[in-house]
Amino acid sequence: MSDVIFLSDVRLSFPHIAEPQRRVNEQTGKEKISYNCEFIMPQDHAGFQQFMQRYAQLAQDTWKEHAPQVMQMIQSDRKSRCFGAGAEKVNKKTFKPYDGYEGNVFITAGSDRMPQIIRQDGTPVEAGNVMEAQQLARAMYGGCRVNAAIKPWPQKNMHGNGIRCDLIAIQFFKDDTAFGEGGAPDLTGMFGAVAAAPAMFGAAPAAPAMPAMPGLPSFLGGQ
Questions:
Q1: Helix-, strand-, coil-residue percentages of the chain, each rounded to 5
Q2: I need a surface site. Which of 84, 125, 133, 159 has the fewest CB within 10 A?
């Protein structure tokens, strides 16, 4: 079974690809950068099925006979896993799932360096071509469809057990409705033409002097 999983035609959400997300550890004060995003897809998506199979294999290899118990613990703790049901992604202001999540599943993937950016023709952007990579990355907005390569891995360290996912490569696939506002609202018909302002001839009349006000500096009209 391949370590790298290919996700075809999935929706991109919360992208931090052109510029990394920066977070400061409150305990250590150190800044951590992460190029990350989420991929939304139907539960029966071939890539998600492959991911879950790989996850089960990694759990078996890592935790041996304790794999079922550990997987149950991971399932019960949203922070310990990189995947979930769309219903879990609830907007704290509206108390409803974020755009695109309801009825779907998602995978979160990230890296401490920019993922490989793939051009439309399938060729990778060269490592030294930062400008092109950022230009293509900025074209990937929340809601568009992308192809991506990810690599799940088991977490087993002092911070606990979990399942994480590296973001290896990403490619813009096609446009879709943008999440959030979805672009500027349609204001057609709300505004009419504005008549041109009349031309001013001669010098403009002098502004009336500001009356003296006690307690203010002289340049503000004070005495």
A1: 20, 35, 45
A2: 159
Tokens coding 185: 């609202």
Cα dihedral 211, 214, 216, 219 sign: positive
Non-local CB neighbours of 9 within 8 Å, separated by 6+ positions:
145, 147, 173, 174
- 49-73 confidence digits (pLDDT tens): 999 999 999 999 999 999 999 999 9
Residue 60, classified by CB atoms within 10 Å of its CB into exposed (0-12), middle (13-18) or buried (19+), is middle
Average predicted confidence (pLDDT) for the chain? 87
DSSP string, 206-220: PPPPPPPBTTS-GGG
User: What b/e string do you get for 93-110 counting C-beta neighbours within 10 Å, with b at 16 or more?
Assistant: eeeebbbbbeebbbbbbb
For 5-19+31-174, CATH gives 2.40.50.140
Name the strand (E) or helix (H) holding 35: strand 31-41
- Nearest partner of 5 among 149, 118, 124, judged by Cα: 149
For the chain, give every domain's residue range.
5-19+31-174
User: Tokens 């990230």 map to which residue?
Assistant: 110
